Amino acid sequence: MLCGRWRRCRRPPEEPPVAAQVAAPVALPSPPTPSDGGTKRPGLRALKKMGLTEDEDVRAMLLGSRLRKIRSRTWHKERLYRLQEDGLSVWFQRRIPRAPSQHIFFVQHIEAVREGHQSEGLRRFGGAFAPARCLTIAFKGRRKNLDLAAPTAEEAQRWVRGLTKLRARLDAMSQRERLDHWIHSYLHRADSNQDSKMSFKEIKSLLRMVNVDMNDMYAYLLFKECDHSNNDRLEGAEIEEFLRRLLKRPELEEIFHQYSGEDRVLSAPELLEFLEDQGEEGATLARAQQLIQTYELNETAKQHELMTLDGFMMYLLSPEGAALDTTHTCVFQDMNQPLAHYFISSSHNTYLTDSQIGGPSSTEAYIRAFAQGCRCVELDCWEGPGGEPIIYHGHTLTSKILFRDVVQAVRDHAFTLSPYPVILSLENHCGLEQQAAMARHLRTILGDMLVTQALDSPNPEELPSPEQLKGRVLVKGKKLPAARSEDGRALSDREEEEDDDEEEEEEAETAAQRRLAKQISPELSALVVYCHATRLRTLHPAPDAPQPCQVSSLSERKAKKLIREAGNSFVRHNARQLTRVYPLGLRMNSANYSPQEMWNSGCQLVALNFQTPGYEMDLNAGRFLVNGQCGYVLKPACLRQPDSTFDPEDPGPPRTTLSIQVLTAQQLPKLNAEKPHSIVDPLVRVEIHGVPADCARQETDYVLNNGFNPHWGQTLQFQLRAPELALVRFVVEDYDATSPNDFVGQFTLPLSSLKQGYRHIHLLSKDGASLSPATLFIQIRIQHP
Questions:
Q1: Which residues fall within 8 angstroms of residue 106, CB to CB, at 6 or more apart?
Q2: Beta strand 682-689 with 342-344: parallel, antiparallel or unpaired?
Q3: What's the whole-model pTM score?
Q4: 767 within some domain
Q5: Could you please report the per-residue DSSP string of 105-169?
Q6: What SS3 state is found at 322?
């Protein structure tokens, strides 16, 4: 534990005056004065802090533009779009006015800004507008793309450049800067008459906006203590003092004072002591000095190698003070092992943007999957008109897209986030002619990206590594002549993948369609090099050489059955070759299953519906959060050894104790922005997802009416038998006594990437977008016997 030792280091006699200079908290910047153009506009200070108030593109966005929103060939509606003065959001006009929160989108929720006809919507419906006038704003999560056409090419470029600058500056902001930006944006909104002065009524409005229901008497006392001019208005430095008091972190101050002693500053040796008590690897005096130079805000303190409370808070709010080990955020694992030794981020029905019954199919779904680190995507291929194969969910009302358009999306977007190989999982329902067309498109569009022959031996003893296959695309499908059934005919994908699932919707295929699917085109077969789709007949290895290039596809039901009945044999099987698991066809609304059970047995390609948010996708995002989010995570050693004795159903006795003290939360989001008096009652739940014996959840009490700075101080403890497989999920909910709790935010990460000590958890939304500056502050202890 962090102890309350007061060890002091000796300093020269002249040091105390320096300490006195820097011990006072650093003030937040003052509001703009009349010299700022002669107009007091508090909202613009946010852009000023970002260094963008003089940027021509941003200034033009502040004035607004009339852009045409394009949704179909005939739906081209002109709407006003205008950057808000906070620099964080864009207001847009609607035909029918809605609640204020429905008229804005946030810069931090933008996934990409594309120029020209670089979206499916603009390629199909934007022909009336020159590409130079068009842009697409793609969002994180399930929000649809925004396809826009500007009056001129220059105006389109201003929005592309301006949004790009704002996103880059937002990404570069420290957590403290984000907090300052956030609170001042609310301050601007609460200043109802925009006079840069705050009455008590406006202060109360501000408090409700930031999710705190403060006692009126306490709030008024705080207000009057800051009202030095005694005119019932706060302005300038008085506002900053109020905000500084509001944003105080007593729990951080207590920790800081345990190590700083009476002079209220940390020397480098004292900071080193804190780092050692935290359990920081590589904690040295040089490291402590480096942290002071990086995070200390006061130049005088920095020159004397001292850290103030503000610098200490900056450090703990930074990525280095977060729960996720920063050394794990880049590619740090061995990428030279066979593909079968990795968990590989995989998508099911990738083409869908909604349910698998009547939802739209789109190439944008592939682009979004790649943006989330997906490395194995599914192409459900059917006979199309004009000799062109199409992709859709067969025998449903889902829309159809061209196979060649999807291959083009793979070419253009597969390697923007990760350089490691992409697997195209073909579910083939086409006849020989259109299979040949598929092969032709794959070769001509992908070119050298496509793996068309083995790198070394045509019959390798193990699969190549991700490193060897960088920038390459693999095809998973049927292979001639190996994939033959007992009566000598070629197996169809559905026979390979669904030999045990009569309930699957593909059972509705007609006899003619089945005959088509049972045929295999030599041209397409030739492209299947390392991923031969094969029915899993037995888990016992054959006496002859292993077949590493064979890939089995199993429904979640069959995979669970194998895990229960032959856990260790399944683990050994997955140490040698790839296994893909997919959701049951009964999940009509594209719901997901928990991927953890499949990972426990070493299944690599655990395919999920990426378009469906929920805890299952949170787990997937947490699993692939590390190793540079490259979509490949090395499996634990017990899942890579061909003679492993590991059985997820019987992992042995507890080996690790995880203790998490939930201390406080900061700036939790307001769930209903349109109800000013609606304040959350937060509780925190910690979940362990691992082998069945390790799965557990515990939660704190709820705190009434405080989403701004709730305090718990409760400790939750877990015993773990297979810590190398465990994921830890932190969830914040709004307690409700009469109905299910409402989701507020979450963060999931592998236990092996969880750092010990006092740490911040930076919360994410349901769609995985940042909820900055919302955080949890916790203390973590991991004990091994």
A1: 88, 89, 90
A2: unpaired
A3: 0.86
A4: yes
A5: EEGGGEEEEEESS-SHHHHHH-TTS-GGGEEEEEESTTPPPEEEE-SSHHHHHHHHHHHHHHHHH
A6: strand
Helix (H, G, I), strand (E, B) or coil at 712: strand
Judge if 69 and 145 occupy the same domain. yes
Q: 773 φ, ψ to 5°?
A: -95, 25
Short-list 345, 271, 270, CA closest to 9: 270
Task: Say how far apart CA 590 and CA 352 lie, in whole Å.
Answer: 9
Task: List the single range of 101-105, 324-328, 464-468, 484-488 with lowest mean pLDDT.
Answer: 484-488
Residues 6 or more apart from 707 whose CB is under 8 A from it? Answer: 211, 212, 665, 667, 668, 669, 670, 679, 680, 682, 734, 744
Full domain range(s) for residue 662: 656-783
Query: Do 564 and 696 share a domain, yes or no?
Result: no
Question: What amino acid positions are annotated as catalytic residues?
Answer: 348, 393
pLDDT, tens digit, 9 for 90 and up, residues 540-560: 654 455 689 999 999 999 999
Nearest of 430, 410, 405, 531 to residue 475 by alpha carbon: 531
The b-or-e profile of 324-348 (16+ CB within 10 A means b, else e) is bbeebbebebebebbbbbbbbbbbb
In this structure, what token pair is assigned to residue 110? 């933008």
State the amino acid at position 34 in one-letter form. P
Q: Is residue 19 part of a domain?
A: no
Residues 540 and 404 in one domain: yes
Backbone conformation region of residue 280, classed left if phi is above 0, alpha if psi is from -120 to 50, else beta: beta
Asked if 391 and 403 count as a contact pair (C-beta separation under 8 A), the reply is yes
Long-range CB contacts for residues 214-223, cutoff 8 Å, separation at least 24 = 222/246
- Reported as type and span, the H/E element at residue 80 is strand 76-83
Q: How far is CA 514 from the centre of its chain?
A: 40
Helix (H) or strand (E) holding 666: strand 656-666
Instruction: Give Rg (Cα) of the chain.
Output: 29
Please give the Cα distance from 348 to 143 (Å, whole number): 19
Say if residue 284 is in the same domain as residue 217. no
- Round to whole Å and give the CA distance between 92 and 632: 39
Residues 550-576: b if buried by 16+ CB within 10 A, e if exposed: bbbbbbbebbbebbeebbbbbbbbbbb
Judgement on whether residues 362 and 442 belong to the same structural domain of the protein:
yes
* Lookup: tokens for 384: 């199309």
d(CA 477, CA 425): 7
Final residue of a structural domain among 188, 221, 247 = 247
Neighbours of 785 (CB within 10 A): 7
Tokens of 686: 């910690």
Torsion (CA) 765, 770, 776, 780 in degrees, nearest 10: 100
Q: Based on the number of CB atoms within 10 Å of its own CB, is 398 exposed (0-12), middle (13-18) or buried (19 or more)?
A: buried
Domain boundary among 113, 142, 172: 172
Return the closest-CA partner of residue 777 out of 698, 678, 667. Answer: 667
d(CA 107, CA 171): 10
Q: What is 359-413 written as a DSSP string?
A: PPB-HHHHHHHHHTT--EEEEEEE--GGG--EES-TTSS---EEHHHHHHHHHHH
pLDDT tens digits, 208-249: 888 877 788 888 999 999 999 999 999 888 988 988 888 899
Is the pLDDT at 306 greater than 70? The verdict is yes
Q: What is the DSSP secondary-structure string of 720-731? A: ES-GGG-EEEEE
Q: Prior bond to 773 cis, omega within 30?
A: yes
Check pLDDT > 80 for residue 785. no
Closest to 657 in 3D by CA, of 585, 716, 598: 716
What type of residue is 661?
Q
Percent of the chain past pLDDT 70, that is, above it, reads 86
Indicate the length of the chain as a whole number: 785
